[in-house]
Amino acid sequence: MPEPALLRIEGLTADYGAVRALSGVSMAFEKGRVHAVLGANGAGKTTLLRAIGGLHPVAAGRVLLRGDDVTRMPVEQRVRHGIAHVPEGGGIIVELTVAENIRLGALWRRRSERPAALAAAFDLFPPLAERRARPAATLSGGERQMLAIGRALAARPEVLLLDEPSLGLAPRVTRQIMLLLRRLCDSADMAVVLVEQNARGALAVSDRGSVLAQGEVVAAAAPGELLADDRMRHAYLGF
Amino acid sequence: MDRFVDLTLNGAANGAVYAALALSLVIIYQATRVVNFAQPALALIAVYIAYSVSGLTGRYWLGFAAALLAGLLMGALTERLLIRSVHDRSPLSAVIVTLGLLLVLQGAAGMIWTNEPHSFPYPMDFRGRFSASDAFALVSVGTAAALVFALYRFTPLGLRMRAAAHRPEAARVAGVRVGLMLTTGWALASAIGALAAMLAVPPFVSPNVLDAVFVYGITAAVVGGLDNPFGALAGGVLVGLGLSYVSGYAGPELAPLACLAILVAVLSARPAGLFAAPSARKV
């Protein structure tokens, strides 16, 4: 018997202005699994993630967390229910210091647990520990992505939503981030939803991949199958 | 020389009042990009409430506490009931709402408490070169500013408020209830505005009593940089001293002109204000 999915979306439909960005998308995300969501620019990947996180209004369909309907729940409350979102560009607050950004992520946790959350983030990302008192604006692109992930993990989420963590990063840094996600997913027992333009890098660490095109799911399979399908690769994954 | 010392002390005490008003404007501007033109009217109502409470109970300090509390509540209600409904539109909409509120509240104050000036006492001795009430103005504004700084810098609430002010969406993603933080900011700012008014109003309260003070307060905020609380405080003291020297050496009728001169001089040299933070790189 497979465990029921931690997070499930059913028939999710959302509009971006006058354009339908998602139509009837259904997916399931399980604990301990990295699920890559791929597709070309404008395929609806970011809208999908923002709808799951609560930043984008849903026109129809449902978001279910552990079977509970959270479709209408405000963003900040979803965070408390275990959904952490790293939006495109990281969503860090560049005016605050590195430590303050992480503390912000841990704020709704019990007071006694906050110092440990901060220490855990610095353990995971030693470069951040060195720059803890500096404004986040002074960080490099890779460090910002680390900070964004550290901030999200400080809330100790069950679901981690990541929007293009490789954007603007050097290939070597991208690979490090991807491997880190794999490790985190295995050790913290989270469900990771990884939206990526960089399909090859994302599939290398994923358990499953879904391909979006014009707001609809055109394929959902194990990474190996997606990579083996030449037509799919050329048409949607761009390599 | 004696005269210079007198004018300096007097200017510093007045400057404290302008600084407090400027601080109340900056707290709101930082969080919502709105210049709250209703601030003098909110503060005016707070002073009238203090006037009524003190009159009924015979205790000045009960009225003082009532003014701060009234400021707190009115600030929160203004944000929640009026500003939030236009929040998604351009900041100009909110500014127009605050201008409307200014007119309504000033009118209402005249209807409730009449347009006649009522005598409103100083809390303590106000005679002499550096009176007890001058000292009280400096100390109370200094304390309020220190408390605001500590709140923003050292408490989880302050961290949430800064996050909400700088990047609302990123703050929400981190679990911050941004709306609640904005309401809190307006409440805090409006309480500080009430404090400034309590210091500025004596010896008489009437519906237009704060008009000139507000002009100096907003000048202080703009001179210091609308984005910077420390700038607001420094701007307040600068405007207070400048106006005091001009009134003392050249005549009080020149004070409004001097205020304009300070504004023009500072803005020509530094358009964003003396202490404006360098704008952060957007990601």
Automatic annotation (TrEMBL), chain A:
Q: Which CDD domains match?
A: ABC_TM1139_LivF_branched
Q: Which residues form the ABC transporter domain?
A: 7-239
Q: Which SUPFAM superfamilies match?
A: P-loop containing nucleoside triphosphate hydrolases
GO terms of molecular function: ATP binding; ATP hydrolysis activity; branched-chain amino acid transmembrane transporter activity
Fetch the Gene3D superfamilies from UniProt.
P-loop containing nucleotide triphosphate hydrolases (3.40.50.300)
Q: Which GO terms describe its biological process?
A: L-amino acid transport
Pfam families for the chain: ABC_tran
List the keywords (alphabetical). Amino-acid transport, ATP-binding, Nucleotide-binding, Transport
User: Which PANTHER family is this protein grouped with?
Assistant: HIGH-AFFINITY BRANCHED-CHAIN AMINO ACID TRANSPORT ATP-BINDING PROTEIN LIVF (PTHR43820:SF4)
Q: Which family does it belong to?
A: Belongs to the ABC transporter superfamily.
- Could you identify this protein by its name? Branched-chain amino acid transport system ATP-binding protein
Q: What is the lineage of its organism?
A: Bacteria, Bacillati, Actinomycetota, Actinomycetes, Streptosporangiales
UniProtKB/TrEMBL annotation, chain B:
* Annotated localization: Cell membrane
UniProt KW keywords: Amino-acid transport, Cell membrane, Membrane, Transmembrane, Transmembrane helix, Transport
The record gives the membrane topology as: Multi-pass membrane protein
Q: Which InterPro entries match?
A: ABC_transp_permease (IPR001851), BCAA_transport_permease (IPR052157)
GO MF term set: transmembrane transporter activity
CDD domains, per database record = TM_PBP1_LivH_like
GO biological process terms on file:
amino acid transport
A single GO CC term for this protein reads:
plasma membrane
Residues that span the membrane, as ranges? 12-29, 36-54, 60-82, 94-115, 135-154, 175-198, 204-223, 230-248, 254-277
Pfam families given for it?
Answer: BPD_transp_2 (PF02653)
Similarity section: Belongs to the binding-protein-dependent transport system permease family. LivHM subfamily.
| Name listed for the protein in its UniProt record | Amino acid/amide ABC transporter membrane protein 1 (HAAT family)
Organism of origin: Murinocardiopsis flavida
Recite the lineage of the species. Bacteria, Bacillati, Actinomycetota, Actinomycetes, Streptosporangiales
